[in-house]
Queue: 3 jobs
Job 1
Amino acid sequence: MNVRFKWTLLVGLLIADISSADTQVDPETALKLLRGQGAQFEKQVVQVTDNVFTAVGFHGANTSMIVGDDGVIIVDTLMGPTSASDALKSFRQISDKPVKAIIYTHSHGDHTGGASAFVGEDNPAIIAMQNFGSAHGVDDALTPIMIRRGARQFGRGLPPDQATNRGVARADTVDHDRGRGYLPPTTTVDVDVYKTEIAGVSIELHSSPGETDDALFVWLPQEKVLFSGDNFYQSFPNLYAIRGTAYRDVLKWSTSVGKMASFEPVHLVPGHTMPINGQQEATSALSKFSDAIRSVYEQTVQGINEGKGPDLIAHEIELPEHLKDEPYLVEFYGSVSHASRAIFAGLLGWYDGNPTTLNRLHPRDEAQHVARLAGGTSKLTKKMLRAMDDGELQWALQLSDHLRWLEDADRRLVLDTKIRALRGLAAREYNAPNRNYYLSYANELESGQLQEFEIQTKGEKQASAVLPSAANFPLQFPYREQIDSVLSDSLSKSSQLY
Ligand SMILES: [Zn+2]
């Protein structure tokens, strides 16, 4: 039994009893699944063909070397010069030919920030799509919150005993020099298909908008190797990132991956995770990946047209039977339900179509009504604690969010319960961004680094939501270093994006 088949079987068995589209299982299973996924980014140089080598696990993403007659071509350059130099050192044990070209599959920082390490004295061409850099997705004005939410999604501040991985990347990457080795493209491609020869190697670059609009895939027609960038990796794709992203055009994404499948590659080198070898395996993976994205889009659109809101669609949506157990479609990184919410918002905006939600009650007023229904604040508190005892962690969390608005609530108890509920949910999660976010948020609440709400004293009319801002969010562990790094680096806004 080969490793791949065994893994497929394991995943199938472990998640066979998941009844809804969520990613919560028992804690032991969640850890087993995440540890199994870790095999996708163990540090190693993988020989893909006689002349193609991929460095996996040197940072979050992959970097590859194509060896030609009188030089080498590098596809993607990792996040910073330290990890890139480390990968180059390994590549140099295979070939000492000069670097003739660097190709960026897209502009995210984990693929571009280490370029300077590969350049040396060689002065290579740096090639990317003409619209390179168009895909940052969010406004610079949002940098403060993006740093915090990104850190939570990736679990950057988690202590070793809480860290697992990032779904398609290891947790222990070297990040202090993020973006410091970035070099802008010297050659940009303004056609859909660009065919060239570099160092005697025939290379085709195909525009493939998806995760970003500026994405391309690299095709080696002779070796039948396809470098997909981040439009394919071995996990259900991050059609929406919980750190906060603008709408990613998932239909274009599906189409681009379908186009890759039409090449029937013999070797598929993803932007993250291990390469897939074999024409049947690689083609089928691309084709099913494309189908999965399209299915999520189509199911969401169908739900929208039936008048359903995003909550209902998110709870009902599932991958079709023939796709859900494929190891490269398990929701280690992206989430099917989150994707449906993003598609809803991307196509129609925030409003779910139900007039009840046009002007919802102020959360404090709703909390007061809920407390009255429960028979008072102390009874509502008991309901929250009972939910914890019963393992209804999500319900406990929702009740804690009501209770924190109530002046007569035991706020310390409510806060402690929220922290425990978040950690309980994290333990059951095999979706890495969710797990990392729950844990990071709980740690911030516990340390006092994050104060969700300051309840005003009696008599004052308004309770104020204290959102994390520079003023009430002390810049200490784990963010100080990141904010320094970001503020001193104009490339920072792209430097944490997968
Ligand atoms: Zn990436």
Note: The chain has 17 helices and 15 strands.
Job 2
Amino acid sequence: MENKNFTKVTLMFFRIISWFDVFASRYFFKTTQLNENEGMLMEQDCVFCDIISDKKPASIVYSDEKVIAFMVIRPINPGHLIMIPKTHASGLSELDEEMGAHMFKVALRIVNAIKKSGIECEGINLFLSDGEAAAQEIFHIHLHVVPRFFGDGFGVKYGPNNFLEPSREELDKIAATIRNSLEE
Ligand SMILES: [Zn+2]
């Protein structure tokens, strides 16, 4: 009987240790190390870096030395794709201006291509989420290109404090705050 209990306790102990190990490796010791791949910075455990380095499949629409654009696996509408920089940048603050400009330039070409392609498209949204509060889910910055059509059911939800009309004074004050921050 005692022996049985001992085995139980031992098993339990090892189970807890292995749970902790899984937990710890996911949350405490998550590798955020950057590796080099053909001169580009790659982050371990980043699904987009894995696509760039061919470790994960993707339906590629466009690729050059700086960016890659590929189809979203759960699209809002057919033709929904995302464009990412080939160098890992988790958010906008890590993106240099030249890369940002290049991303937008390529996005314009893709927008025109979608419009010409025959894919259902009565409008297009370009959107980019920076930060968890802005609904960013994958922390390798990405620009969505989403073909839209009337009745597609997609929309942005508004809260009760959105679209209040601040006074001109208040707008001027906020403008000055941002202006000062720009000049710093
Ligand atoms: Zn990445």
Note: Residues 19-31 have pLDDT under 50 and may be disordered.
Job 3
Amino acid sequence: MIDTHAHIFLPDFSEDVASMIERAKEQGIRHILMPAINPESVAQMEMIAERNAGNNDIYLHPMIGLHPCDVHEQIPMWGEHRWAQKLENWLNEYASLDHYIGIGETGLDYYWSTEYKKEQMLSLDMHFELAKSVNKPIVLHNRESTHDLLKAIARHQNGSIKGVWHCFNGTYEEGMQAIDLGFHLGIGGVVTFKNAGVAEVVRQLPIDKLILETDSPYLSPTPLRGKRNEPAHLAFIQKKLGELFELSQEEVEEQTDLTATSLFSL
Ligand SMILES: [Zn+2]
């Protein structure tokens, strides 16, 4: 199994990072993809990746990006007039390193605040340009910003952009629009929630465009909902997909692993 989205470098894991990775390995996870959030967390991400470097049972892969929810906090730190240049410099420092397998996480989030809409979009545009120039997949976050996000993908898609709409929880139409624009959809714990409506949408989508993710430490799947999430919980999501598509867990694993491996060149 491949957990395509896990923030295991956050302080939530500082007490038990080694045993958490061990539990993931025991559950059959072979790759954990780590989307960056902000400059502060990158040092921790690098350290975890480096410490795990000799481990041939489970691979940890960093990405580089500024989370849309961090845009408003990062701007004052970098300075109102210089933040765009600083962001570009920071992204460029990591983006072409071989072990950085993707650009993200970026995207739009209008749920917490719409005050920085313009800046979020500018940041997203920069991530798209970078993904094109280094030819790596981009990882997108969306919350109450679907219309703008789909427009941004369409605007940037020149035939070379690939990536994932992570933690997908939109409608069937929205999912298919993203797929038609060359994107994959990341399916996480929300698919296991009763009444979320996501399961009904997911079962209609083409399975070869779906990849699995936990979004650790957030969004723990049922029956662990509300607890800290970790990559070892990915199996609950895989099992749910098996039910939705009437496939065995092994078949789901084979398909989603293949898709993730090819998307992220693992
Ligand atoms: Zn995330």
Note: The pocket of zinc ion is lined by residues 5, 7, 35, 105, 141, 215 (CB under 6 Å).
